[in-house]
Amino acid sequence: MTQPAIVAEDLTYHYGDNIAVDHISFEVAAGEVLGFLGPNGAGKSTTVKMLTGQLRPKSGRALLLGSDVSRQTGQVQAHIGVCFERNNLYERMSGIENLRLFANLFGISGFDPMPLLEKVGLSERGKDRVEGYSKGMKQRLMIARALVNDPQILFLDEPTDGLDPVSAEAIRRLVLEQREQGKTIFLTTHDMMEADKLSDRVGFITDGKIVALDTPRALKQQYGKRALKVEVSDGNGGVNAREIDLDQRDTSSVLQTLFEQEQVVTVHSEEATLEDIFIRITGQELVI
Amino acid sequence: MNWQVIKTLIIKDVTLYFRDRFFAIITVLSLVAYAGIYFAMPSSVDETLNFALFSPDGETTLDMTFQGQGVAFESLEAEEALINAVEAGDYTAGVVLPADFSANMAAGAPTELTLYYAANLPAELREAVEALFSGSGFGASTGAVIINQEVIGVDRVGQQIPLRDRALPMFAVLILIIETLGLASLIAEERETRTVRALMVTPMNISGLFVSKGIVGVSLAFSQAALLMLVTGGLSQNPLLVLLILLLGSLLVTGLAFLIASFARDMMSVMGWGVAALLILVVPSFTFLAPGLSSDWVQLVPSYYLIDAVDQIVNLGAGAADITINLLVLLVTGVGTLVLGGYVLREKLYES
Known about the structure:
heterodimer, A: alpha/beta, Rossmann fold, 2 domains, four-stranded antiparallel beta sheet, 10 helices, 13 strands, 32% helix, B: alpha/beta, five-stranded mixed beta sheet, 15 helices, elongated
C-alpha cells in the first residue's frame, strides 16, 4: 500500500485558552487533491502552519512523506511548496530574483527560472520588479515560487481569492497540471465551485474540528437532495417553476403526469452544492 | 548551520537595503554629512582670553588694567551665572572679585579673587590666566593678590580638544543608529509583508535567519562607522582598539534593531521607536561636547561607554588598559542586547 503523503494525527493547537485546532486526524494520499474548507477562524491556517512546520503542534503530530514535520522540519520542507493567500513576494526584487532566491534557499544549483516563468506566463516580465506586477501576475509568481523545488506536496492557500476570472482560470489550470503530474495538493479555499472542480476529496473544518471529509460526490449523495427543476407554460406567455424530488417513490408517475397534462418548457437537474452541504452540516455560512 | 543559505539571505538583505531609496540615500548622505560637518568645524581653538566677571561692588576697571594684553571682560550679575557660563564654555575663565576688592586696591592692601576655569582649558592657558592675576601681572600693579582656583567639570588640563574631535564619537554613534533604523525597517518590512513566512517554509532554519540578519546589521553598522573614523582620522591612534569598540557598538545597535523590529510593524513605528532609542543613545555625547553639562545618570546608557572609549582613544591617546571597563560594559550590553533582541524577535516571528 502506498504511503500517504500527509498524515495528521490528533493534531491540536491553541493560542492561550483559545483552541484553534482540536484533535484533528486525517490522511491525504499521494497524488490526491484535498480541498480544505471552513469559515474564517475555523482553524484552516493553523492546520496548514502545523503541516508546513511553521508551528509546532501542542499535541499530536503531522507526518509528511513519512517524516515528522516537527522533528525533521528542514527535511520535510525540502519537498513541499507553499503558496500563501496574501502576496508575500519581495517587491523590490524582480520575478527572476525572487525565484533564484528561493532556489538558493533550497540549495538548487544551476537553477533556470525561465521555464517556470513561462509556465505561469511571466517570461516577458521576469526582469521587472514585482512592485510593478498586477495582482494576478503576483499570484502566478507565488505559484511559480512554490514550484521552484519541484515539490511533492503543494499547499495552496486561497490561490484564486480576489482575482479576475481570467487570472483565476489560469491558476486553476496550473493546479490541474500539477495534479496531472501526480503532486499531492492541499487546497484551502472559500470557493466551493473551485473546491468541487479541483478536489478529489473535501474536508470541512469548523471550530477547529473536521466535521466532514469525503469526495464531493459522496457528500452530495449523503447530504444533498436530487431534484428536477421544471418550467411549464402558464398559458399566458409566462412560465411556472416546479421542483420534483427525484428520490420519492412516485417520481416517475409525477413526471409522466406532468408531461401529459402540461406544456413543459425547460427541464434542469438540480443537485446540492458543497455550500448547501456545508451549511447543512455546520449550520454556518462558509464565507463570514 | 547552512552557510550557503546564510550567504543567500545576506545578499538578499543587502540588495533590499540599498533598493530602499530612503535608506540608501540616508546611509550615503549621513556619512557624507557627518564627515562634512567634522571638516567644517574649526580645527584649532580660539585662544583669545575672554573672561566673565562678577564683582559685587561694581568694579569695572579691570578692562583698563589689562588694556592691550588681549584680554576682555564681560560683567555678569551673579556668581552662579558666571559658573554656568564658564561651564558651558562661553568664556575662557571666570573672575569673581570680593566685595571689598576696590577698597583694598585703593588702599594697596592685599586682596583675593577666585578664578573659575572651564574643565578643558589647556594648562598653558590656565597658567597664563593665573599669571595675569598674580604677582607677575595684575598683582604687580596692585597689592598682594591671593588667587583661589576652581575647575568646573572634568579636569583636562593640557588636553583641550577641538570641538570637532569632541563631536567625533557622537558622529560614530549617530552613524550606528542610522544603520539600526535601516536594519529594523528591513526586518519590520519582512514581518509586515509576511515574506518571512515564505522563508520559514524553506529548509532555512530560524537560527540561519538570525545569523544572516545579525551579520548584515553588524556589517552595515560597523563598516559605516569605521569608514567615518577612517575619513576623519579617527583611526590614527590605536586603530584596532577603535575598531573593536565600534564592533561591540555594532552588536549593541544590531540587538536594538532586533528589539525595535519586534515592536514595530511598519516604517512609521520603526521611526518612532528608533528616534526614542536615538535620543537616549545620543544623550551621553553631551558630556563630551560640554563637559560637566550632563549628570552622572548618563553612565547608565551603554552608548556612554562607546563614546567615552572612542573619546579616550582618539582624543586622549588611551590604551586598552585605560578602557577595560568600557570594553567589558560594551561586550556585556552588546551581546546581551543581541541575544535579548534575537529572542524577542524570534517569539514575535512565531506569533505572526
